[in-house]
Amino acid sequence: MILTTTNSIEGFKIVEYKGIVTGTSSEIKSKFSFKTEKNLKLINDVMNEAKESAFQDLQTNASKLNANAVVGINVDIETFSGSYFFVSVTGTAVKVA
With 0-12 CB in 10 A as exposed, 13-18 as middle and 19+ as buried, what is 10? Predict the structure, then answer.
């Protein structure tokens, strides 16, 4: 599956728009009281896990619509108290040839 933030894919033609798809994910980790290098790496790892999970969800939802690409992807990452991460990924599922 092709995933892109652009509205078109070079070398491909969009032949059918399937609809808007979303993928979401959240991760909760214990509160980090100090911004040490180790804690910043842990926070980064947690955010990346949540983002990867959201993209997997997005691809699953696009596949259910028989799409082979998602264009115009927007990623929104929210953090709360440094311990809760919510990721929302939204795009348009399309069929390209």
Answer: exposed
